[in-house]
Design a protein that fits this description.
The complex is a heterotrimer of chains A (436), B (421) and C (351).
Chain A: H1 23-31, H2 36-60, H3 70-79, E1 83-84, E2 87-88, H4 94-105, H5 114-131, H6 140-156, E3 158-159, H7 161-183, H8 186-215, E4 219-220, H9 230-257, H10 261-276, H11 279-293, H12 302-328, H13 331-339, H14 344-374, H15 386-395, H16 404-435
Antiparallel strand pairs in A: 1-2, 3-4
Helix pairs in contact in A: 4-9, 4-15, 5-6, 6-7, 7-8, 9-10, 9-12, 9-14, 9-15, 10-12, 11-12, 12-14, 13-14, 14-16
Chain B: H1 16-19, H2 21-54, H3 84-117, H4 122-136, H5 140-154, E1 177-179, E2 182-185, E3 187-190, H6 209-240, H7 247-264, E4 267-270, E5 273-275, E6 278-280, E7 283-286, H8 287-314, H9 317-325, H10 330-360, H11 372-384, H12 387-416
Antiparallel strand pairs in B: 1-2, 2-7, 3-4, 5-6
Chain C: H1 3-19, H2 23-29, H3 37-44, E1 47-52, E2 60-61, E3 67-68, H4 70-83, E4 89-94, H5 99-104, E5 110-111, H6 119-123, E6 127-129, E7 134-136, E8 138-143, E9 158-162, H7 167-177, E10 183-187, H8 190-199, E11 204-208, H9 209-217, E12 225-227, E13 235-237, E14 240-242, H10 246-264, H11 272-276, H12 282-288, H13 294-298, H14 304-312, H15 315-322
Helix pairs in contact in C: 1-2, 4-10, 4-14, 10-14
The chains are: A mainly alpha (436), B mainly alpha (421), C alpha/beta (351).
């Protein structure tokens, strides 16, 4: 009799998981073919992707980069044998080569292209301390404060004394406020500061700046707003309108949340009115009515009028975003501020606003994306934004009949900008979530 | 014992208006009000002065004068001799039509995309992400002109349907024609129309209004009856625990009365046919309507998809698991547990998307769809030169539409809102 | 720095202060009266001229952003007469919707934008038409393959029209008068109308005959399209100014007349210098300022007409250069010939 019993004395080595569960196959089984329904969906999706790509790719890859007109494009395409049922088939990229600079800068004088480029690069620098607060030194905030005066000077040019003088108004107002506050009280300080600043701007500003400009003629050559166009125009309208709507939006949001009935109803009325009408009607107001509302003889040029209306438009949406930020703040913050004995404005300035604005940044970014996309509407009232320019280019007899290339290129430009910004805003949202 | 003394009576001083919190709010409000009134007065006086300088007098008299231009898509009767006011109404109806169509389609597409984005199928989820990002990050105006160009350039024109060997042919047994000028689909025509005249041709997307009114009235009654049946079933289920089978009754109530009305009115399909320059007969949906409708719904659906996705994700996993633990099947989990809760998160942003879509429909002007912006604030403005009156009136109308939509939606929102105790 | 440059800087400065939030600054500093346009233009050193956003041959920016065209040339002539610099013009592109507002509000000093002279525009909208620089009429263009030879056969057709013009009113009237129905397709710009017409989204394209010719000229196969013989309306196109400022209206009117008269008298940009020395013909002398004081009467100097003609040539030269038979537009003079050649151009006497 032999003992046939078997006792395993050592563990079996771990076996590789079956081939169907790991690697590419496993991943596919898990994610693409986990059931009959999913398998059908996968097959359909693959077919769909193939269908779309097979339609677009051959069209996209087209050796027409150097063509000088649509006719040349067609000749090139016929020469390489890319012929569909309706004649030559393929994109005509010559129009992009010839006009892409125009699509970015409009009619801005070419020797000054560095100015808008620098303005927008510096914009990133000025925004950095706000957007990436943890990664850049806080000192940069001083640059952010200077930037609003730098931006229009770079774009529109002119004597440097203009923006300096305008900024001086704030400085003078601030010093008057400080000195009066020390001697009398803060309210008198605010009033005195505001009045001196207003006097500076309304009375002293133009004679002094023009005197200085004659004395020391420092400045950049002026560029008329009519020469603005293309992507630069869209960005300018978007940036200026959002920048100016921020303070307006804060005031409106506070007004809407306040207990003061008249103030509240004025703010609600304004916000709901602006949000209730389409932007295009506001642009009609800009293009046809704004000059009628102003004192006789006033004449803003159309881009300025559009910026004014876009600012009002954005400020209503901004107010709602900031109101959301205020509402999201825990009640304890308000109570904490009260218990420290801070008054309303101190509490807003030191406790509420810094936090509420931080929470609102993603909302502000998406408001900006929305406004930036909406700037294409200015083409309807005759401004030459990328879409307006595409019409002008199509009116050129060389490019008569071009459709897809221009629209595609413009769409791509907008996509890159907006997608980038929305990604940033999502990153920010994630970061803020961990903070709370 | 200490006796309470009255607080020292202060006489009123002017500075109290500012420092005393009892008066300060009043002061601020009055200052704000005065400032506002001054601003309004300033604007009005400027406007009046400018109008005097231009020699124009604001008046709405032009609204009753003949418009002089034709509108292609008209839901009510209109010709070039009708008044500017009627032209504005035609435009308003066109706005409402495209807004209603757009909202419905955007919701359907948006929900499908939003749910598919959560799909476990990697490829499907990716495609849907691309869809959403593609539509969200490119301006709507660009989509509108782009889709218009696609419709015009890629679809065959009526001339291609002509001849012995036409380059294009109608679909679905010669009942539908997709052309670059628009889509022609069969229309339901009532041969026994209650409006005796019958002969008068109503060139519109929806015609024969009285007949349709009857149909819709009957449909409404049927739906009301179905709800009664359902409620009765609920009662029985609560009382006995058994739910009577009622689906055939519901189906019958829905179909039979409407069917009878259709037969009585002599409903029959009218097919489009090539006649002269164009197709005639049937419903003609113009390319401008198609482009606008499609662009509005695709663009908005990308936003709706995101709203739906975040709404579903906002319902915590515990809810689903708890429902599964109660033995509910996945479909019922979705219907009874997840969706009702998700809806509360979804509805408010959805309302603002509907509002946006309605306002965005004003971009119709880019493709020549004759909505309110195209008629009142477009051709009427051009022909009469009354910028102030037309633009103000147009804004007012849009404001009313917006306020009405948000009122209706807020009412609904309040109904489904969680009542906190 | 030229005076224009300084002015531009002033203007820019003003704009900036507005951007910086001091709205009222600009409001106060720009409070000049709108009445004396001539003085305003002289003080500004620049003429603001409203043109269309792009109509080939009449006004369109070229690749360098410089405006070219027949309407543009009128603006340049006025600028030359008033400011001695044909380039001292700021062109303001206007759409059908914004053109009248731009003029009425003072944004532009004159409008040279294919605008039809009608009673209601002249009287009700308070403008002053200063003459006609192009006699036009509305026509129809159809593809040859349609086999249509008269506009009377167009019943049931789909018609592309450019909105914001008198065209859509004429069209409605014409079809109504002939008891035909049609399907209007309103379109904002000529480029889009062209695209839709070529794609076949409409059977007929209707606009001013000059525009039709220009459009047809740009087609790949121009021979496949015909312009129907019917001209259904009168479209006298001309520059206009605000009502009530007669001095300025006179300047624009007589600048245009000077261009027309110069052709009639045989003055062109080649022989202008020679003629300006003085000739046997007293009317030529009066026009060119060597005799009499016509320029002074207008509030200009005596050389005004010389400069206007020098800016681009006389009416005939401008026509040939921008829209004439040698250009891609290829328009014949037709109604726009001198009255001596059987046309309608008839400049009143210079005396």
């Amino acid at each position: 009799m032999s003992n046939l019993s078997f006792v395993r004395t050592e563990m079996l080595p771990e076996r590789e998981p079956p081939l169907t569960e790991v690697g590419v196959i496993g991943w596919m089984r898990e994610n693409l073919f986990s059931g009959w329904f999913n398998s059908i969906l996968t097959v359909l999706s693959v077919l769909f992707i193939y269908y779309v790509l097979s339609g677009i790719l051959p069209w996209l890859i087209s050796p027409t980069w150097n063509a000088g007109s649509l006719r040349e494009c067609r000749e090139i395409l016929v020469a390489v044998g890319s012929v569909g049922e309706h004649g030559a088939s393929g994109a005509c990229w010559g129009v992009i080569r010839e006009r892409w600079i125009q699509l970015f800068f409009g009619f801005y004088p070419s020797q000054f292209y560095w100015r808008p480029i620098m303005a927008f690069v510096l914009l990133a620098v000025a925004l950095a301390p706000v957007l990436f607060a943890d990664k850049v030194p806080t000192r940069l905030l001083y640059f952010s404060a200077v930037y609003p005066f730098l931006f229009p000077w770079l774009l529109w040019g002119g004597s440097i004394w203009g923006p300096l003088g305008a900024a001086a108004g704030f400085v003078i107002g601030y010093f008057v406020y400080k000195s009066v506050e020390v001697r009398v009280n803060s309210l008198a300080g605010i009033i005195a500061g505001a009045v001196t600043a207003l006097i500076w701007w309304l009375v002293l500003f133009s004679p002094i700046t023009s005197w200085l400009a004659n004395l020391i003629p420092l400045g950049l050559e002026g560029v008329r707003s009519r020469d603005f166009g293309g992507m630069m125009l869209s960005l300018t309208i978007g940036v200026v309108a959002i920048g100016m709507s921020l303070p307006l939006g804060i005031v409106l949001a506070l007004g809407r949340k306040s207990d003061l009935l008249i103030v509240k109803s004025l703010c609600v009325g304004f916000i709901e009115f602006i949000r209730g009408v389409p932007l295009i009607t506001l642009l009609f107001v800009a293009s046809t009515l704004l000059n009628i509302f102003m004192p006789p003889g006033t004449n803003f040029d159309i881009i300025l009028r559009v910026i004014i209306m876009a600012t009002l438009f954005a400020s209503a949406y901004m107010a709602e975003v900031i109101r959301g930020g205020l509402a999201a703040l825990p009640k304890g913050q308000y109570e904490g501020a009260d218990s420290l004995g801070l008054n309303y404005w101190q509490a807003q300035r030191l406790i509420i606003m810094p936090q509420a604005l931080k929470i609102s940044i993603p909302g502000i970014v998406s408001t900006f994306i929305g406004l930036f996309k909406d700037t294409t509407l200015v083409s309807i009232i005759g401004l030459l934004d990328p879409l307006g320019l595409s019409n002008a280019i199509r009116a050129d007899s060389n490019w008569n009949g071009i459709v897809w290339e221009l629209y595609g290129f413009i769409a791509l430009m907008f996509f890159v900008f907006c997608f980038g910004m929305s990604r940033y805003s999502m990153y920010l949202e994630r970061k803020l979530q961990t903070g709370h | 014992m200490t006796s309470l003394t009255d607080p020292p009576k202060e006489s009123f001083r002017l500075s109290m208006l500012i420092y005393d919190t009892r008066y300060r709010s009043m002061t601020i409000q009055i200052v704000a009000l005065i400032g506002f009134l001054i601003l309004v007065g300033w604007l009005i006086s400027n406007t009046a002065q400018n109008l005097v300088d231009l020699g124009k007098e604001p008046s709405f008299g032009f609204l009753s004068e003949p418009a002089g231009y034709d509108i292609n898509q008209r839901l009510i009767e209109y010709n070039s001799q009708s008044s500017h006011f009627r032209a504005a109404i035609v435009g308003l109806l066109n706005t409402l039509l495209v807004a209603a169509l757009g909202c419905a389609t955007a919701t359907v597409i948006g929900v499908v995309i939003g749910v598919l984005r959560l799909s476990k199928n990697w490829l499907v989820a990716r495609i849907m992400t691309v869809y959403v990002e593609m539509f969200r990050n490119v301006p709507l105006l660009l989509w509108i002109v782009f889709i218009m160009a696609i419709v015009i350039e890629t679809l065959p024109q009526p001339r291609d349907f002509r001849g012995e060997n036409p380059a294009a042919s109608m679909l679905l047994g010669d009942s539908v024609a997709l052309t670059g000028r628009g889509f022609y689909i069969p229309a339901i025509e009532f041969t026994n129309s209650v409006t005796a005249t019958g002969a008068e041709e109503v060139d519109a997307v929806v015609g024969g209004s009285l007949d349709w009114l009857i149909v819709f009235a009957v449909l409404a009654i049927s739906i009301f009856a179905i709800r009664r049946v359902r409620r009765r079933a609920d009662r029985i289920q609560e009382a006995t625990g058994l739910r009577p089978t009622t689906w055939y009754l519901q189906l019958g109530l829905l179909i039979v009365p409407v069917g009878i009305v259709f037969i009585l009115l002599g409903a029959q399909l009218e097919y489009p046919a090539l006649r002269g320059f164009n197709f005639a007969g049937g419903i003609y949906m113009r390319n401008s309507l198609i482009a606008l409708w499609l662009a509005l719904s695709l663009y908005t659906s990308a936003f709706v998809a995101e709203i739906v996705r975040s709404g579903i994700m906002a319902v915590s996993g515990g809810q689903t698991e708890a429902a599964a633990a109660l033995g509910l099947r996945p479909r019922r989990v979705m219907n009874l547990v997840v969706l009702p809760q998700a809806l509360r998160v979804i509805i408010p942003p959805l309302i603002s998307q509907y509002l946006n879509l309605t306002k965005n429909s004003s971009l119709a002007i880019a493709v020549g769809y004759m909505d309110l912006t195209g008629t009142l604030m477009g051709i009427t403005l051009n022909q009469t030169g009354r910028e102030l009156e037309t633009v103000m009136l147009g804004m007012l109308i849009y404001l009313m539409i917006s306020l009405m939509i948000s009122a209706v939606m807020n009412w609904y929102n309040n109904r489904v809102k969680l009542v906190e105790r | 720095m030229s005076p224009a440059r300084v002015d531009k800087q002033e203007e820019v400065k003003m704009k900036k202060s507005v951007i910086l939030g001091a709205l009222s600054v600009a409001g106060l500093s720009a409070g000049a009266a709108a009445a004396a346009t001539l003085d305003d233009v002289k003080a500004r050193g620049q003429l603001n001229c409203g043109v269309s956003t792009g109509l080939s041959g009449f006004s369109a920016p070229d690749a360098d952003g410089e405006w070219q065209g027949f309407d543009v040339a009128v603006c340049r002539a006025v600028a030359a007469a008033v400011l001695d610099d044909p380039m001292a013009v700021e062109f303001v592109p206007t759409t059908g919707k914004t053109r009248f507002t731009a003029l009425a509000s003072g944004e532009v000093d004159m409008l040279a934008r294919n605008t039809t002279w009608t009673l209601s525009r002249d009287v009700d909208l308070k403008f002053e038409f200063t003459g006609v620089n192009y006699y036009d009429g509305q026509g129809f263009m159809v593809p040859k393959s349609l086999g249509v030879s008269s506009a009377k056969e167009l019943s049931g057709a789909t018609v592309c029209i450019q909105t914001g013009t008198t065209t859509e009113l004429n069209l409605a009237d014409y079809f109504r008068k002939n008891d035909m129905d049609y399907e209007p397709v309103p379109i904002e710009t000529n480029a889009e109308a062209q695209q839709q017409y070529l794609a076949g989204a409409c059977d007929v394209y209707t606009t001013d005959a000059s525009g039709l010719a220009a459009t047809r000229a740009s087609f790949e196969n121009a021979g496949d399209h015909v312009i129907l013989p019917e001209i259904i309306s009168k479209e006298p196109l001309g520059p206009l100014v605000r009502h009530g400022d007669n001095e300025w209206g006179d300047v624009v009117r007589w600048t245009l007349n000077a261009l027309i008269a110069a052709e009639e008298m045989g003055i062109n940009s080649d022989n202008l210098a020679e003629m300006a020395e003085g000739t046997e013909n007293p009317e030529v002398n009066r026009l060119l300022g060597t005799e009499g004081n016509l320029g002074e009467m207008l509030g200009l100097d005596s050389d005004w007409a010389q400069r206007a003609i020098m800016a681009g040539g006389n009416y005939g030269e401008l026509f040939e250069k921008h829209i004439g038979e040698q250009t891609p537009i290829g328009l014949a003079r037709g109604l726009n010939a001198q009255w001596t050649d059987g046309g309608l151009l008839y400049a009143p006497p210079f005396r």
